[in-house]
Amino acid sequence: MRTAYQYKLRPTKQQARDIDKWLSMLCAQYNYLLADRFNWYEQNRCPVNACPLICYLPELRDNPDYYGQKRTLPELKKTHPHYKEVYSDVLQDVVGRVKKTFERFLSGDSNGKRSGRPRFKSRERYRTFSYPRIKENCIVGGKITLPKLGAIKLILHRSIPAGFKVKTVSVTKKADGYYVTLSLEDLTVPTVKPDINPDSITGIDMGLKEFLTTSEGEPVAIPQHYRKAQKRLRVIQKRVSRRKKGSNRKRKAVKQLGKQHKKVADKRKDFHFKTAKQLLSKYDVVVHEDLNVKGLSRTRLAKSMHDAGWSSFLSILSNKAENAGLLVIAVNPKNTSQDCSSCGVKVPKKLHERWHSCQCGCSLDRDHNAAINIRNRALGHRVLKAQLMSDGIPGVAEKPTLYCTQSV
Asked: Which parts of this chain are annotated as the region Disordered (predicted)?
């Protein structure tokens, strides 16, 4: 199992200057390697029997693949000696980032989904570098030892769990300082809880009036962190727009704006983690709708949806459930708000109608009705049905499937 812990760094002034210098050099190298791949691609993407609109003879050279670009790094250190200050593994990791970015542009990810054309990064947009390998005892006495940067003080607000090993380290510069992210690995695999209680299953309906409503009728209020911070953000944004471009006052205003946005994001993330903990400490199985959040965020409700952060919350919920050996299941969202949870008859309602009333006598809140429908659909789900049937049978609880997104 892999997990990640993030801590805030307290570097000295010299260490902060070194980190900034590394980021600047790595950004330049990233853009150079990406441009090299684009040059080869533009000159060689036409087949031999086709004539391009711009006729020229392409340069006959090998495709600048991952290993070919790594072989150019020793020559880079000869022509630009200041790159010797950067740790070799960190410099090689830039080549890997370019490879991954360009391959997603050409052939797509593991699901075949292609990303847009990679962009060259400005210095302000390149904020992270990684150590692909690190010593096990890199953290001693509240300090982390990073090659060529030395021992840097960090705020160890929680200890690393027993049995986990530090595999990689990433250093990130954010609006309010420097952070280090540790990728931890444990060889043990969490298993699904063998004794799932059928009464400990809940459905949650995500909304914008309430953040979510459980099938027991318990609502969780939506905090609206961004909307509450809009007044302050508006003042700072106006200050940024009035500053002269390239001036120190403009730079300070931009930094202040970044801190305010990060404050809003941290509040939202804290709310998501606390809400996920409350659900998983009370229920063994949490069922939600398999929503197309990306599509819904293109509507007029985009600001409210981004403020709620549904996608981030569901990701946190599924990860925490997997680590705890619990289940999070996604079901088909079709007509969960329209169908009656008592008799199953479809009762059409517009979006502003917040109360469900059926001829069978069922009368309850619209979101509560939807949450009950979501829970009922999960009871027929093959993953949950197989888990409930396998209670008490040795070895069945060791199945690797912990989170399923197939629709019912």
From this structure: 241-261
Least confident of 87-91, 251-255, 380-384: 380-384
Same domain, 219 and 181: no
CA separation for the pair 70, 270 (Å, rounded): 40
> Does some domain include residue 111?
yes
Which residues does 103 contact at the CB level (< 8 Å), separation at least 6? Answer: none
Q: CA 87, CA 112: separation in Å to the nearest integer? A: 34
Structure confidence by residue, pLDDT tens digits, 67-111 = 999 999 999 999 999 999 999 999 999 999 999 999 888 888 777
Helix H or strand E encompassing 131 = strand 128-131
Instruction: Take residue 251 and report the two structure tokens written for it.
Output: 């730079």
Same domain (yes/no): 169, 207:
no
User: Model confidence at 404, in pLDDT bands (50, 70, 90)?
Assistant: very low
Tokens (6 digits) for 259: 């801190």
Is 80 among the domain residues? yes
Separation CA 150–CA 91 (nearest Å): 17
**Same domain membership, residue 370 and residue 261:** yes
Could you identify the residue written with the tokens 């079901």? Answer: 331
Question: b/e per residue, 70-91, with b = 16+ CB within 10 A?
Answer: beebeeeeeeeeebeebbeebb
Q: How many domains does the chain have?
A: 2
374 burial (CB, 10 Å; 0-12 / 13-18 / 19+) is buried
| Closest to 187 (Cα-Cα) out of 168, 165, 170 | 165
My answer on whether 128 and 264 are in the same domain is no
The whole-number pLDDT of residue 126 equals 95
Report helix, strand or coil for 95: helix
Q: Are 327 and 384 in contact (CB under 8 A)?
A: yes
Residues 6+ away with beta carbon under 8 Å from 156: 7, 139, 142
pLDDT at 403 over 70: no
So what's the pLDDT on residue 407? 34
